[in-house]
Amino acid sequence: MYTYGILSTVLLSAGTLVAIVYLVKFIYSYWFNCLSNIPGPSPPSWWLGHLGILYRSPAGVIERQWYEKFGHTWRVKGICGKNILMTADPKIIQFVWQTSGYTFERVPINVQLAKLLTGPSILWAQHEDHKRHRSVMLPAFGTKESRALTPVFRTAAIKLCGVWKDRLAMAKSGCLVLNMPAEIARATLDAIGHAAFDYDFGAIEDKDNELANIFQNLFMTIRGLPSKRKIFAESFFTNYFPASLVQYMKYIPSKGIKHMNKSLEVSTKVAQDLVARKNERLIMGKEGRDVMSLLVKSNASEIEQTKLSDEEVYAQMNAMMVAGNETTSTTLTWTLWELARHPEIQAKLRAEIVQFSREAQEKGLSEIPVEDYEKMVYTTAVMKETIRFHTPIMMSTRVATRDAIIPLSKPIQTTDGQTITQIPVTKGTSVFASYAQYNRLPEIWGPDSYSYNPDRWLGMVEPSIKLGPYNNLGIFGAGIHACIGWRFAIIEYQTFLIQFINDFTFEMTEASSKVRRTRASVMLPLVEGEEDQGCQLPLLVKRNRN
Ligand code: HEM
């Protein structure tokens, strides 16, 4: 009885102490934060701040409203009144993401989710670990290496088009309605399997393929339209719990976490098998050019700076599928949607593709060579315009790992009447970049930046502030965490697009005119009124008679 009394007193005191610490933290972050004088919208709720709107509303709409009211940079609220700096300012994005190295790192929630989903991969690694992961992986993603993969992408594209042609041949009407994201994701998974791992997932033909089914709708299942409770819990755990406890998130019995656990289990099993096979080939002196061969070779290295553990090698495979599959398949999906909405753009694109194919044939080539890809001015304009307009990863987040001073491209009028050209932030301050709004800034992309117009790229003037690896678009991130697969993605994107437009014509359906752009880490299409069906964008497909 006496022991019980002491125990309950100790527990009560510990509980009270924890509550006081949190209370002080909340009050501090609410009232005494370095961002308190930055203007911004009033939060719809204190406990969730703007996170509910940011994660649940149609993609890009609210950011535009905030930009129009507050200018390039504004303050939003996280949970329990926490101030967050939100921006579309190229100078801030350049400073935080591109030039300040590890002064700004990924936010804890994303780091933990990346670990749950992929294991100890490059998507999770930070600081020295991250440098090591990146230096091992980068050589596999150069221009030469990515270009060398063109035949692999072409094979996957031709295979998918072959399946569609067979189905069209059976269709009495001569046309088919296909749900594009589901169709294309299988082909991009096969492409990544061959290109990155020299492995055939067989996802195009095998509808029961376990890995393909897990990766189907991955982002929608784990990040799409999260409940308010989920947003609060994730943000609370990752902001106020020590990282050592956050790893236990994997035991939360939610649908999303269960899916992540399953995905990690299945893909790690496949990765282990692949690594074992690669090791055998390496021992036999047969080296591959694919990413996995490189990782396996680094695994055997004696040099600590270029060595990955077995677990890290398996995790990189998961990372590439997570980072490289749905991003590319969704980009292709949005492109076909825009082409269906704008038949005149589709016809102009097809004319260029047919012309380049003809020229290739005249040179005795069966396909347009990758060396000609950049010469396809209109095709690349359509690609750039689509990823500008339908920014696949609409928002990126960082947290300051030490105090810093952030420069602005446009001065801000603070709530206490000062005009400032830089914002001092303390360690722990979160910064959200709206890539979606940056990609629509009229001063960079022109007065019609809110409309889809590939022609803008035919006379584009370079902006003064340079950002990211691809045409100053806020697409592939920037700096230490910039996408390593961007060349891979662009060549894959163009190869698939050429094949699709050469073989088929795409038209709108009733459902595709009700498509809503939804945030789920990657921006995904949902049909209004059919949100429970997951990612959907049904288009009418007809075969071209070239
Ligand atoms: C259209 C396709 C793609 C888009 C839009 C895209 C976008 C991005 C973005 C925005 C980032 C930076 C995230 C951040 O700032 O935290 C990123 C990182 C990354 N991407 Fe991509 N990506 C694409 C395709 C690919 C492909 C095909 C691969 C690999 C095969 C890939 C692998 C990665 C990896 C490993 C990282 C993490 C890099 C690091 O943290 O150092 N991505 N990607």
Automatic annotation (TrEMBL):
Lineage, opening ranks: Eukaryota, Fungi, Dikarya, Basidiomycota, Agaricomycotina
Tagged with keyword Transmembrane: yes
Cofactor: heme
Keyword Membrane: yes
One function term, GO molecular function aspect: iron ion binding
Keyword tags: Heme, Iron, Membrane, Metal-binding, Monooxygenase, Oxidoreductase, Transmembrane, Transmembrane helix
Family, similarity comment: Belongs to the cytochrome P450 family.
PANTHER family: CYTOCHROME P450, CYTOCHROME P450 12A4, MITOCHONDRIAL-RELATED
Organism per entry: Sistotremastrum niveocremeum HHB9708
Protein name (Swiss-Prot/TrEMBL): Cytochrome P450
